[in-house]
Each structure stands twice: as structure tokens, then as C-alpha cells.
Design brief:
flavoprotein; 344 residues; 11 helices; YqjM-like; NADP binding; 13 strands; OxRdtase_FMN_N; binds flavin mononucleotide; 16% strand; NADPH dehydrogenase activity; eight-stranded parallel barrel
């Protein structure tokens, strides 16, 4: 059978062998609050490479200690992080997958000691810390942190960088009128709310010429939040800046009740792709191979991101190939097991 899911995807200098992406997932496996890779990380990411995913995106990795979601987050704020990150990259490359890293800053959602930062001094919810309003100097420094993170990602030989602009973390906090109440050029109009991300993309572009993805929360589930035309605008701007793909997630900028069902965020990826000439990734409760195939074959998105399903089954790509009747090449060590269920 012809399968789009198992067809290659080329972005800039990088070719993915299929459209299956391991979505970034925090592993909370840093041991000494130092942001450093532990034994868990190469094992965890390496086994999804063995399992057949085309691209694996390493969990949200903090560009500054203050931007950690928790003290167990990976970090990329120091050259001391390079050795461990390189270990993940080499392991995944050895087993024939491409590897990306999600660069993040938690903003007002950081759960750490000491002050935390946000565009405006509004806590995410009552039981969370009130952030400090970022000064222009804080903004400038944080943009430089993203740039340094990208420079290190390149040095560690990652294939893809994804900026974490979703789920109510710092970049998302600037984009959303729900969390950004600034009166300067970084707040107010959507042009202004985009400025922080714009300057981060510019800074990253100055040190990185590989594939650049941005994850956005393309629905805010609040009447005063950004609407789809705002996300179309942000995506048009990103496209003009050379961003390659918008990874379309949703929610978590403010607490909200979300009606979740298989593929619930796929229409968001479809809407962005239709209205902006930019590639998209679909994510969220995609677990069935035929569902993943449908999404990419019907052009709803270019890549399918799987998160929890790949925690349950690292060999999901093998299962998908068998179900879709596609022949794939597994690791030589496992050939005798795999060939029995794959078409000849
Ligand atoms: C344990 C766990 C950690 C996660 N960490 C991140 C993260 O670091 N960055 C991110 O953008 N999304 C993160 N997510 C969200 C997933 O990438 C994904 O968008 C979400 O789980 C929906 O996909 P799924 O239904 O396939 O799990 C995380 C999800 C889980 C379950």
C-alpha cells in the first residue's frame, strides 16, 4: 500500500524517513538540579529511535535556570550541558532517526525557588507564584538565552530546533492578551505581542540554519484569548521569518476545561496549513495508525506528533507499518522478529 505516513519528509537539509514524530515530553529525570542529561535520557530517546520514529524531539529544555518548569528539567544554559546532550544525539543518530530539541522558558509557570518572570505580574492561578514583570533588559537577556541555546543545539549536532511557544510558558505568555498586559512595544496589539517571538526567531536564525519548528497553543479556550485569525497572523509572520513548521497544540495559557477526543487538535493544524503556506504538525490523542495515515494523506498536517502512545509502545511505528502494509527496515538486531509481521 502507498502510505504517506511512511513517506520521507524533507525540511531544509534534513530528511526524515517517515512522518512519525515523538512529541517533546518532560522526563523529570535530571538528578542534581543541574539540568544535565542522566542515563535515562539516551536510553529513553534511543529506544524510540530503535522503534522506528522518523524524528524524536527532546523534551522542553530550559535556556535559563529561572525558565525551568521544575528543577528536574533538562538545561541548555551552559556549555557544561553539551556532553550529555551530545550523548542523546549520537545514540539517536546511531539508530537511524533524526533528533530535535525543544528550547523552552517556563515564564510564570516555573516551579522553582526564587523570582520567576513573565510579561506581566499576573500569577497563572491562585496557588502559583506571582511573577515579576520583565524589564526591557530581562527581555533582551532572555532572547540572548534562546540564541545561546540554539548555538549549543547546533554544537551538539541536533537536526531540528523547536521553540516552545505553547502551553502557557513564556513565549505563549507574550503572545496571549490573557497574560500580556504590557503597555510598551511588547504588549497591546498582536503585532506587539508577537515581537518577543519575532526577536527570538531572529536571534536563533543568526546562529542556526537548520529546520526550525515552533509549537503554539492554537486555541486558548477563553473568550478574550487569541482567536484563529491571530494564530494565522502569527504563523504568517513566522513563515516570513523562515520558520519551517508550526506544531499545533492548544490550551494551558489559562486554566480551562477542554473537550478532548482523538485528533481534537487536528483541525487547528489544518486551519493553519490552509490559510498560511506553512507546514504543520498535528498532535493530541493520535494513537491509531489509520488515523495518523488519514491526517497526513488528506493533507491536514505534514507530520504527526505522538506523545503518550509512544510512552506505552516505543515500537508503535513497527505496529503502524504492519497494519498499513508497509515494509520498513528495522534495526538489524531485531530483523528476525520484525520481518515476520511486515509485508515481504
Ligand atoms: C509526560 C508528558 C510530558 C510532556 N512534556 C511536554 C514538553 O516538554 N513540551 C511540550 O510541548 N509538550 C509536552 N507534553 C505534551 C505532549 O507533547 C503532547 O502534546 C500531549 O501529550 C498530547 O499528545 P498525546 O495525546 O499523543 O499524548 C507532555 C506530555 C506528557 C504526557
Amino acid at each position: 500500500m502507498m502510505s504517506t505516513l511512511f513517506s520521507p519528509y524533507t525540511v531544509k537539509n534534513c530528511m526524515l524517513k517517515n512522518r512519525i514524530v515523538m512529541s517533546p515530553m518532560c522526563m523529570y529525570s535530571v538528578e542534581n538540579e543541574d539540568g544535565k542529561v542522566t542515563n535515562w535520557h539516551p536510553l529513553h530517546y534511543g529506544s524510540r529511535a530503535v522503534g522506528g520514529a522518523g524524528l524524536i524531539i527532546v523534551e522542553s529544555t530550559a535556556v535559563h535556570p529561572q525558565g525551568r518548569i521544575s528543577v528536574k528539567d533538562l538545561g541548555i544554559w551552559s556549555d557544561d550541558h553539551l556532553e550529555g546532550l551530545k550523548k542523546i544525539v549520537d545514540t539517536v543518530h546511531k539508530y537511524d532517526a533524526k533528533i530535535g530539541i525543544q528550547l523552552g522558558h517556563a515564564g510564570r509557570k516555573a516551579v522553582i525557588d526564587g523570582p520567576i518572570l513573565a510579561p506581566s505580574p499576573i500569577a497563572y492561578q491562585d496557588d502559583m507564584k506571582q511573577p515579576e514583570e520583565m524589564s526591557k533588559e530581562d527581555i533582551r537577556k532572555t532572547i540572548a538565552d534562546f540564541k545561546e541555546g540554539a548555538r549549543r543545539a547546533k554544537e551538539a549536532e541536533f537536526d531540528v530546533i523547536e521553540l516552545h511557544g505553547a502551553h502557557g510558558y513564556l513565549i505563549n505568555e507574550f503572545l496571549s492578551p490573557l497574560s500580556n498586559k504590557r503597555a510598551d512595544e511588547y504588549g497591546g496589539s498582536r503585532e506587539n505581542r508577537y515581537r518577543f517571538l519575532k526577536e527570538i526567531v531572529e536571534a536563533v536564525n543568526s546562529v542556526w540554519d537548520g529546520p526550525l519548528f515552533v509549537r503554539l497553543s492554537v486555541a486558548e479556550y477563553h473568550p478574550d484569548g487569541n482567536k484563529i485569525d491571530d494564530f494565522i497572523y502569527f504563523s504568517q509572520q513566522m513563515k516570513a521569518q523562515g520558520v519551517d513548521l508550526v506544531d499545533c497544540s492548544s490550551g494551558a495559557i489559562v486554566p480551562a476545561k477542554i473537550n478532548v477526543y482523538p485528533g481534537y487538535q487536528v483541525p487547528l493544524a489544518e486551519e493553519i496549513k490552509k490559510n498560511v503556506d506553512i507546514d504543520t504538525g498535528a498532535v493530541g490523542q493520535i494513537t491509531e495508525p489509520v488515523h495518523a495515515e488519514e491526517i497526513v494523506s488528506n493533507g491536514r498536517a505534514d507530520l504527526v506528533f505522538l506523545a503518550r502512545e509512544l510512552l506505552r509502545d516505543p515500537y508503535w511505528p513497527l505496529k503502524a507499518a504492519a497494519q498499513l502494509g508497509v515494509s520498513i527496515k528495522g534495526p538489524v538486531q531485531y530483523e528476525r522478529g520484525w520481518q515476520e509481521i511486515l509485508p515481504k
